[in-house]
Design goal:
HAD-like_sf, transmembrane, membrane, alpha+beta, about 1200 residues, 8-stranded antiparallel sheet, about 45% helix, 11-stranded mixed sheet, 38 helices, 38 strands
Length: about 1200
C-alpha cells in the first residue's frame, strides 16, 4: 500500500471504502473483493492483431470457403456439347447446388465475423478473451479488466499507468470510475489509495500542514490534485455507443436487406426514423451529463499553510495534509474538499449533499478535552468535519492566537480530495451507480428467439421449394429467405414499445411527474414492494410543540403558555440556532420550540422574551448535540434586576433515558410518562436546569461539560409531534389494496416509526421490534412488543417457519443495529426476514441502499420514494426510484442561443414539410401510407420532445434534490405521485404485453403467408398492402393511447411475456387462425381456374411484371382472411379492465376495429362494388360468400373462447405474494 504523503498525515482507510459499509459486509461468505466498488481486477496484454480471436480463426475459414467456391466448385464445368445428356444434366444440378452452398457458406462466415466483432463491443469479457492474454504482474502496455461489485456500473478495460517514486522505484496504478488504485507488491493486487480519515484527533490538531517541498510532491504523486473534472462525451461517441446496441444493429441489417430488394423509399425512411430516434436519446443523455458536470467544484483562490507560510493557491491544488482557511461562501463558492476544523467554528448548509435544508453548527477540535480518539467522519466526527460541496453560511474566527489565517477564516485540515470526498462519492453514484433500464432487455430477445423458430421454418420452406426450379436465381431466393427472417421479427417493435412508453411519459408530465429513464415506466407496473422514507415523505417538515408533560399530576401535557419559568428558560436558551442576515437558521425542532415559548434570538446570541415576567438570557457556552451522547447543554447568564450582577444557569435537553441519570431527583412516574408519549409517535425530549450563581470569565472558559450535566432539576418533557401529510393514509391504503407490500425505511426511532406505521395503516397487527440483549431481562436478541409486555426469542433454527408463526399475529420492525447483527451473524435468517419486515428504523443511508439491493437480489421488484439526497443510493438502485421535490422549483429562462435554435428549427420544419409534399407526388400509394404513418410517429415524438422541453423550463433540478439521481421526480411533495406512476406503469406494461401478443400472432400468420402462400404465387396489390398497413398502424397507435383507470386495481398484471397464459393463448389462437386460412384457401383453390405453366414468384418477375396485378379468387380470399384475422387478433387480445380503459372507452380503437370489420363484410358480400373495385377484389360465388363469412365469424368466436379458456386456466394476473401486508 502506498504510504500517505508527509509524516504528519495519519493513516486511514481506502478512499472509496465507507467505514460503515465494511461493518455491513462483516463476515459475509462472499467471493473476496477489493473493496465496496471493485469485485476483482485481472491484468492483460494485447495480442498482435493477426493473432486475435477476431482475425486468426476467420482467415482459414474465408480462404477455404472461397477456394472451394471458386476453384473446386467453379472449376467443375459441364461438357461443351449442344445437346445435354441426362448424365451431364445431373452434373450441372450437382454443380449448381454446391455453388449455392459455397455462396451461403461465405455469407454465413461473414455474418459470424461481424457478430464476433459486435460481441467485442457489447462485452468487455469477450473483448478481453479474444484480443488479450492474461499476465500476473503490471508493466508497460498492460491493461486491467476491472469488474465492479453489483449495482456499481459496468466492467471496463483501463490502461495500467506508472510513475517514478523518489527512491527510483516504479509505482503502477489504474483509475476506475474516478478512483485511483495502486499496485501492492506484497499482496500482488491493486488497493485503493488510503486517505488520512481515521487518524487520532491529536495528530490533526498538532499538524503544521505540508512543511517541505518533498512532502508536497509525495502527496501530489499519491493523491493527485483536488479536481472533479467530468468530461462530457462528444455527440458522436455516445451515438456510436447507441448505434452498436443489438436492436439497432438488427434494424440496420434489415434496412440493408430491404434496399437490396428494391424497397428503397421504405428502407431509407425507416433508417432515417431509427437514426432520429437514437439522436433524441443521445441529446437527452448529453443534457443530463451537462447538468451533472455543473455539480462539480469550480476552482477559486484559497489560503493554504504550506512550508510554514500562508500562501494563496487554487482550490484545485489542495492536497490531503494541507491546512487551509475557510470563510463564508461567496459567489457560489463551496467547500472544496473534506476537511477537519481545527480552530474556529462554522454554520454550514449541507442541503447539496443530504437534501436537508437545515444549516448545521460545526465545531473545532480545540473545543475538545480528549484528543486521543480516532476520527469517525461518518459518525460522531461529523460535528468537526466540513464536507466538500457544502456552503459555509457563517464562520467564527479562532479565539486562540496560536495560528490565524490572513483572512480570519477557520483553520481546517484536508482529509479527502477530488472524487473521494462526500460530494465526489455522490457524483460517482450518479455517474456510474446503476445500469440504466433500456428496451434492450432479455425478455424482448427471448420473444424474438421464440418468433425466430417460426421464421426459420418459413424461410427453410421457401428455400427448399424455391430451389426445385433450377432456373431460379439463387441469390434472389436467398435474399427472399433472409427478408422473411427479418420481417417475421417486427422491425418497428422498439418504436411501438417507445410509443407506449412515450404516451405514459406525457401523461405523467401533465401530473408534474418527470422521468429521466422512460423505459423504467413498465417496471412500475411490476412493483411488489413499495418502500418509503418517513420524514418529509410520509410526514411533513412542520413540527408542532404540543406542550410540556411530566410536571402536572398524572403526567398530563399542559400548553406551553402554562409552563413554569425553569422550563421556558431551558427551551429558550438550549439550542444551536443562529440569526443570520437571511433569518433564523438551525434545526426545525429548535425553531419550533423557540417560536412556541415566544422568545427572540439576536445576532449576539442573546434570547429576549416578549413577556415581561421573564429575564433576557445571554448564551455563554454551548456543548453541542452528539448522537453518541444524545443530549446538548448550554451555559447562559442573566442580569439580576437593579444590579450589575450576572447569574448563570446550565440548561440541558436530550433523550429521556440519558437525562434521567443526571437528575438530582427523578419523579416516580418519569419512565411511564415519556414511554406513553413515545408510543403515541411524539418526539419526547427531557429538560433539566441547574443554578450556578455568579461565574467569572476564566471559570466559564474552564467549565467542563460534565459539571453542567449533573445534579439537574427536572424541568419536564417537551412533547413535539410531526403531522402526517393529508393524503399519505389514503395512498398507503390504495397501495395495500392493490397487491403491494409497503415498507417504511427511516432514520427515526423505532417507537416513532411504529406509531406512524400504525397511523397510516401500514399494518393492523401489533408490531414487534428486534431488540438487543438487556443484562437485566434478556440475554440474547429477541422480538419485543412496543409496550414491552410480549417477548419472543429470535428462533434462528426454525428459520422461515418461526417467522411465519410470528407473522400470524404480528408485524415486524427492525433497527439498523439489528440489521447489522443479522448481517454479520445470521445471513440466511436475514434473507428470509427482509421481505417480511414492515418498519426499518434508525437506518443509515448505506443500510437503506443495502435493503433495496437485497430485495432486488431476492427477486422482488422494488419502488423507493424519498425526498433527500441521503436516499440517493436507495433511489438509484431501486427498480423504480421516486424523488419528491420539497423545495419550490426554479424557473429556467431560455437563453438567446436556445431561442435562435428554436426559430431555426421552426424554419427547417416548414422547409421539410414543403419538400415532403413535393416528394409525396412521386411515391406509390403504399409508400405514401408508410410515410403518413411515419409522420404520425414523428408528431408523437415531437410532442414528447416539447413536453420534455417544457419540463426543462418549468423546473431546473438543483443539488440537494435527489431527482438527478432518481429516474422519477415529482414536483409535488405528496406521495400521490407513487400511485400515478404505478397506474401508468401497469397501463404501459399491459399495453406492451398485449402488443407482444398481437405482434406474435401477426408474425406467425405472416410466416405462413410469406412461405406456403408465397410459393403458390399469391401476392397482394400495392393498394391492398397499403390499406392493410394503415389499419395496423392506426390500431397500434390507438392501443398505445389507452389511459389507465382512475383507481388502482386490486390485482397486479403478469410481469412478463413468458407465462402459461400468454404462450397458450398465442398458440391456440394461431391454431384457429391457421385452420381458417388453410380451409378457406383450399376451398378457393377448388373454385380457381386451372393454372397454366409454372408459378412465377415475385423474385422471378421483371420490373414491368412487378407493377401489374391480376386479382383471382385465391388472392382475394387470402387478403380478406388476413384483414379479418388482424381484426380478430386486436379485438380478442385488447383488454382494458382492470388496468386501463375498456375497448368501449377507447373510442378511436373501437371505431378502427368497427370500420375494418365493416370493410371485411362489404368486401366479402360485394355490397359495395366501388369498394371491391378499389381494393381489387373479385366477385365471389354466392355459396362461397356464405362459407367465407361463416368461417370468419367462427374464427373470431373460436379465438375469443380459447383465449378465455386459457385465461380461466392460467390467469391473466399475478399471483398474490406471501410478503403482502394484507
Amino acid at each position: 500500500m502506498t504510504e500517505a504523503a508527509g509524516a504528519d498525515i495519519p493513516r486511514g482507510e481506502a478512499g472509496d471504502t465507507d467505514h460503515y459499509a465494511k461493518e455491513m459486509t462483516g463476515k459475509a461468505k462472499e467471493p473476496p473483493k477489493l473493496d465496496d466498488l471493485v469485485q476483482y481486477v485481472s491484468l492483460h496484454v494485447r495480442i498482435p492483431t493477426p493473432l486475435t480471436g477476431v482475425v486468426l480463426p476467420f482467415v482459414p475459414l474465408y480462404l477455404s470457403a472461397f477456394y472451394l467456391w471458386i476453384h473446386v466448385i467453379g472449376g467443375e464445368e459441364s461438357p461443351k456439347t449442344d445437346q445435354i445428356s441426362g448424365e451431364n444434366q445431373t452434373t450441372t444440378d450437382h454443380s449448381t447446388t454446391w455453388n449455392d452452398v459455397g455462396f451461403i457458406a461465405v455469407v454465413a462466415i461473414a455474418f459470424l465475423h461481424v457478430l464476433t466483432l459486435l460481441f467485442c463491443y457489447w462485452s468487455v469479457h469477450v473483448l478481453a478473451f479474444l484480443t488479450c492474454r492474461r499476465v500476473k504482474l503490471p508493466g508497460a502496455n498492460v491493461l486491467a479488466k476491472v469488474v465492479p461489485t453489483a449495482n456499481n456500473g459496468n466492467s471496463k478495460i483501463v490502461p495500467v499507468k506508472s510513475s517514478k517514486l523518489e527512491d527510483g522505484s516504479t509505482q503502477y496504478f489504474l483509475v476506475f470510475q474516478k478512483t485511483k488504485y495502486v499496485w501492492n507488491e506484497d499482496r500482488k493486487t491493486f488497493r485503493a489509495v488510503e486517505f488520512p480519515v481515521n487518524g487520532l484527533l491529536s495528530s490533526y490538531s498538532s499538524s503544521r500542514g505540508l512543511e517541505t517541498e518533498e512532502a508536497i510532491k509525495r502527496a501530489t504523486l499519491t493523491y493527485g490534485n483536488n479536481e472533479m473534472e467530468m468530461v462530457v462525451p462528444e455527440f458522436h461517441e455516445l451515438f456510436i455507443e447507441r448505434a452498436t446496441a443489438p436492436f439497432f444493429v438488427f434494424q440496420v441489417f434489415s434496412v440493408g436487406l430491404w434496399c437490396m430488394d428494391d424497397y428503397w423509399y421504405y428502407s431509407l425512411f425507416t433508417l432515417f426514423m431509427l437514426v432520429a430516434f437514437e439522436c433524441t436519446i443521445v441529446k437527452q443523455q448529453l443534457r443530463n451529463m451537462s447538468e451533472i458536470r455543473k455539480m462539480g467544484n469550480k476552482p477559486y483562490l484559497i489560503y493554504a499553510f504550506r512550508q510554514n507560510k500562508w500562501r494563496h493557491i487554487g482550490s484545485d491544488e489542495l492536497l490531503p495534509g494541507d491546512l487551509v482557511s475557510v470563510t463564508r461562501s461567496q459567489n457560489d463558492n463551496i467547500v472544496p474538499c473534506d476537511l477537519v476544523i481545527l480552530r474556529g467554528s462554522c454554520i454550514v448548509d449541507e442541503s447539496m449533499l443530504t437534501g436537508e435544508s437545515v444549516p448545521l453548527m460545526k465545531e473545532s477540535l480545540e473545543s475538545l478535552d480528549n484528543l486521543n480518539i480516532e476520527m469517525d467522519a461518518e459518525g460522531d466526527g461529523k460535528l468537526f468535519v466540513l464536507f466538500g460541496g457544502t456552503k459555509v453560511v457563517q464562520h467564527t474566527a479562532p479565539t486562540k492566537e496560536s495560528l490565524r489565517a490572513p483572512d480570519g477564516g477557520c483553520i481546517g485540515y484536508v482529509i479527502r480530495t477530488g472524487f473521494n470526498t462526500s460530494q465526489g462519492r455522490l457524483l460517482r453514484t450518479i455517474l456510474f451507480g446503476a445500469n440504466r433500464a433500456t428496451e434492450n432487455n432479455v425478455e424482448t430477445f427471448a420473444f424474438i428467439a421464440f418468433l425466430m423458430v417460426f421464421a426459420v421454418a418459413a424461410a427453410s420452406y421457401v428455400w427448399v421449394k424455391g430451389s426445385e426450379d433450377l432456373e431460379r436465381n439463387r441469390y434472389k431466393l436467398f435474399l427472399e429467405c433472409t427478408l422473411i427472417l427479418t420481417s417475421i421479427i417486427p422491425p418497428d417493435l422498439p418504436i411501438e414499445l417507445t410509443l407506449a412508453v412515450n404516451t405514459s411519459l406525457i401523461q405523467l408530465t401533465k401530473l408534474f411527474v418527470f422521468c429521466t429513464e422512460p423505459f423504467r415506466i413498465p417496471f412500475a407496473g411490476k412493483v411488489q414492494i413499495c418502500c418509503f422514507d418517513k420524514t418529509g415523505t410520509l410526514t411533513t417538515d412542520n413540527l408542532m410543540v404540543e406542550g410540556i408533560a411530566g410536571l402536572a399530576p398524572n403526567g398530563a401535557c399542559v400548553p406551553i403558555e402554562e409552563a413554569p419559568g425553569n422550563t421556558v428558560q431551558v427551551l429558550a436558551c438550549c439550542h444551536s440556532l443562529t440569526l443570520l442576515d437571511d433569518g433564523l437558521v438551525g434545526d426545525p425542532l429548535e425553531k419550533a420550540t423557540l417560536a412556541a415559548v415566544d422568545w427572540t434570538l439576536t445576532k449576539m446570541d442573546s434570547v429576549i422574551p416578549k413577556r415581561p415576567q421573564f429575564k433576557p438570557l445571554k448564551i455563554c457556552q454551548r456543548y453541542h448535540f452528539s448522537s453518541a451522547l444524545k443530549r446538548m447543554s448550554v451555559l447562559a447568564g442573566y442580569l439580576v434586576p437593579y444590579s450589575n450582577e450576572v447569574k448563570h444557569i446550565g440548561a440541558v435537553k436530550g433523550a429521556p433515558e440519558v437525562i434521567q441519570k443526571m437528575l438530582r431527583e427523578v419523579p416516580s412516574d418519569y419512565e411511564k410518562v415519556y414511554l406513553e408519549y413515545a408510543r403515541r409517535g411524539a418526539r419526547v425530549l427531557a429538560l433539566g436546569i441547574k443554578e450556578f450563581g455568579t461565574l467569572g470569565s476564566q471559570q466559564i472558559r474552564e467549565l467542563k461539560r460534565e459539571e453542567v450535566e449533573c445534579d439537574l432539576i427536572f424541568a419536564g418533557f417537551v412533547i413535539i409531534s410531526c403531522p402526517m401529510k393529508p393524503d399519505s393514509k389514503s395512498v398507503i391504503k390504495q397501495l395495500i389494496q392493490s397487491s403491494h407490500k409497503v415498507v417504511m425505511i427511516t432514520g427515526d426511532s423505532p417507537l416513532t416509526a411504529c406509531h406512524v406505521a400504525r397511523e397510516l395503516r401500514f399494518t393492523r397487527k401489533k408490531l414487534l421490534i428486534l431488540t438487543p440483549p438487556d443484562q437485566e431481562e434478556r440475554t440474547s436478541w429477541s422480538w419485543v412488543s412496543i409496550d414491552g409486555d410480549q417477548t419472543y426469542d429470535l428462533d434462528i433454527k426454525r428459520g422461515s417457519k418461526g417467522i411465519s408463526l410470528l407473522l400470524g399475529t404480528h408485524d415486524l420492525c427492525i433497527t439498523g443495529e439489528g440489521l447489522q447483527h443479522l448481517q454479520q451473524n445470521q445471513q440466511q435468517y436475514m434473507r428470509h426476514l427482509l421481505p417480511l419486515i414492515t418498519v426499518c428504523a434508525r437506518f443509515a443511508p448505506k443500510q437503506k441502499e443495502f435493503v433495496i439491493t437485497q430485495l432486488k437480489h431476492l427477486g422482488y421488484c422494488t419502488l423507493m420514494c424519498g425526498d433527500g439526497t441521503n436516499d440517493v443510493g436507495a433511489l438509484k438502485h431501486a427498480n423504480v426510484g421516486v424523488s419528491l421535490l420539497t423545495s419550490a422549483p426554479v424557473k429556467r429562462k431560455r437563453t438567446e442561443e436556445e431561442q435562435q435554435q428554436a426559430a431555426a428549427a421552426a424554419n427547417a420544419a416548414a422547409a421539410a414539410a414543403q419538400a415532403v409534399a413535393n416528394a409525396n407526388q412521386q411515391l406509390t400509394p403504399r409508400e405514401r401510407a408508410l410515410r403518413r404513418r411515419q409522420e404520425h410517429i414523428n408528431q408523437t415524438q415531437a410532442r414528447l420532445q416539447n413536453a420534455l422541453r417544457d419540463m426543462e423550463e418549468q423546473t431546473m433540478v438543483k443539488l440537494g434534490d435527489a431527482s438527478i439521481a432518481a429516474p422519477f421526480t415529482s414536483k409535488s411533495s405528496s406521495i400521490t405521485c407513487v400511485n400515478h406512476i404505478i397506474k401508468q406503469g401497469r397501463c404501459t406494461l399491459v399495453t406492451t404485453l398485449q402488443m407482444f401478443k398481437i405482434l406474435a400472432l401477426n408474425a406467425l400468420i405472416q410466416a405462413y403467408c410469406q412461405s406456403v402462400l408465397y410459393i403458390d404465387g399469391i401476392k397482394f396489390s400495392d393498394t391492398q398492402a397499403t390499406m392493410q398497413g394503415i389499419f395496423i398502424a392506426a390500431c397500434f397507435l390507438f392501443i398505445t393511447r389507452a389511459k389507465p383507470l382512475k383507481t388502482l386495481s386490486k390485482v397486479a398484471p403478469l410481469p412478463n411475456i413468458f407465462n402459461f397464459y400468454t404462450i397458450s393463448t398465442i398458440l391456440s389462437q394461431f391454431a384457429v387462425h391457421f385452420g381458417t386460412l388453410y380451409y378457406l384457401t383450399s376451398q378457393a383453390n377448388i373454385l380457381a381456374p386451372p393454372r397454366e405453366g409454372k408459378v412465377k414468384l415475385y423474385i422471378d418477375m421483371d420490373a414491368e411484371e412487378k407493377t401489374k396485378y391480376d386479382p383471382n379468387i385465391v388472392s382475394s380470399t387470402v387478403y380478406i382472411i388476413c384483414l379479418s384475422l388482424q381484426v380478430a387478433t386486436i379485438a380478442v387480445n385488447y383488454k382494458g379492465h382492470p388496468f386501463m380503459e375498456s375497448l368501449r372507452s377507447n373510442r378511436m380503437l373501437m371505431y378502427a376495429i368497427g370500420a375494418s370489420a365493416t370493410l371485411v363484410i362489404l368486401l366479402s358480400t360485394g355490397l359495395a362494388p366501388e369498394l371491391t373495385e378499389f381494393f381489387e377484389i373479385i366477385n365471389f360465388p354466392t355459396e362461397f360468400r356464405k362459407t367465407l363469412l361463416g368461417v370468419l365469424i367462427l374464427d373470431i368466436i373460436g379465438a375469443f373462447i380459447l383465449d378465455r379458456i386459457c385465461s380461466f386456466l392460467f390467469g391473466e394476473t399475478r399471483c398474490k405474494s406471501k410478503v403482502l401486508n394484507c
